[in-house]
Amino acid sequence: MTPSLRAISPEIRSRFAHVDACPFEGPRVYFENAGGALTLNSVIETSGVFAAYPDNAAGRDNPAGAALRASIERGKADARVFLNAPDGQIFIGESGTEVLFRLVRTAALGAKSGGKMLGSTLEHPASRSAVARWAEVTQRPHILVPHDDATGTVGLDAYLPHITPDLRIATIVQTSPVTGISVDVGEITAAIRQVAPACFIIIDGIQHASHGQIDIAQYGADGYAVSPYKVFSRHGYGLGWASERLSACPKETVIGGSETSWEQGTRDAGSYATFSDVVAYFAWLGRHFTDSTDTRAQILAAGKAIQDHEHTLISALMHGTGNHRGLADIPGVMIIAGADNPRREGVISLTLEGMEAGALVGFLNTQGIRTHIRNNDHYCGNILSPLGLESCVRVSINHYNTEDEVSQFLQAMNAAALL
Predict the structure, then answer these.
(1) Do 239 and 92 meet the contact criterion of CB atoms below 8 Å apart?
(2) Contact at 8 Å (CB) between 221 and 200?
(3) What Enzyme Commission number(s) apply to this enzyme (predicted)?
(4) How does 122-132 read in b/e, with b if 16+ C-beta sit within 10 Å?
(5) Per-residue pLDDT for 366 more than 60?
């Protein structure tokens, strides 16, 4: 078996579009993966093929309709394996944000009246805004568990005082897209279930999905959302999972339609097909690290290899490579959630003393490094405001990135510190 992901890096990178060059500005290092991961070449090909089909999958008695229905069912089955979701429903929405809103809305309207709705200050506004909206509509208190600024996450100890029997809906973000730090969702859901077993629990897995394993069967949740464009697919759809009991709650449907179905209107068979491409890629990658022929085992092996490789890259980013100082040793660099945080997943948000974040992003662009600014606004103010920051630079990696790219980035950062 291949001992490390690094050994097959060229083969991995060959499977992605624009891996080392932007189609608009030429060669660059892509460290903007939290804004959208690179896209698999297979996804691009599949998207074009399915976009050309004029046929409708819904109830058509012809070979084209049957083929489209088969692609949808295959996509759902593949997603079940990827998520480890043996029951419940898989469905496609407009985006990961829209999926979260639908899950929260359905839970809020379907839960027993009264009680409260629980979230945390770590969450992305996708889930936080959805809970705020439907807490107001259903006249429930919206409780926010405070995250820890130093560690960039929120732990069970912070949740425990707010977990009471009258809890109706709880949302949990699995990984913060700003701090990059993960949350132990299994631990928190177990604690909620023990005290409030009927509570609907919805997990935002959007930032986590590309960095490691997902295990819905272990979480004991009722809803889960993924943005496929952040996990090597394309823009234009979100992937959702809902438990059987959440699916049984009243929801929007056409008159005479299935009351348990989350799907509305004509399905985009291409979205399901492109998610099958993602699952096939994880399985292909995993076969380099396990002899098992079981797809789930291959996905788990891929996730472990991805995590190991990303931890190696994060360590190099923090502590240096070759003769380039790491971020932890560059004068004036401040790293949100600390340099050596064991729960970090692919994201480093930082500031450089004496250089505004937008200027640093611009300078890095001139050096061929793509990063992104995060501002103290409705998207990131929950993280930046308590730290007294107006903005920061988000550096986000994925498993197809390399140590050579880390070196290029550190060379640029060391140069920026001297300006």
Answers:
(1) yes
(2) no
(3) 2.8.1.7
(4) bbbbbbbbbbb
(5) yes
For residues 128 and 206, what is the distance between their CA atoms, to the nearest angstrom? 14
Q: HSE on the CB side for 311, CA within 13 Å?
A: 12
Does domain 45-281 match CATH 3.10.20.740? no
Could you please report the per-residue DSSP string of 27-38?
E-EE-BGGG-PP
Buried b (16+ CB within 10 A) or exposed e, 213-234: bbebeebebbbbbbbbbbbbbb
CATH topology of domain 5-39+300-417: Aspartate Aminotransferase, domain 1 (3.90.1150)
Q: Which of 102-116, 254-268, 400-414 has the lowest mean pLDDT?
A: 254-268
Question: Both tokens of residue 405?
Answer: 């790219």
For residue 395, give the nearest of 47, 34, 57 by alpha carbon. Answer: 34
- Read off the pLDDT of residues 313-322 as tens digits, 9 standing for 90 and up: 999 999 999 8
Number of alpha carbons in the 13 Å side-chain half-sphere of residue 246:
28
In this prediction, residue 266 carries a pLDDT of: 82
Cα–Cα distance between 341 and 362 in angstroms, integer?
27
Kindly indicate the confidence band of residue 59, based on its pLDDT and cuts at 50, 70 and 90. confident
Q: Which of 243, 114, 242 is nearest to 166 (CA)?
A: 114
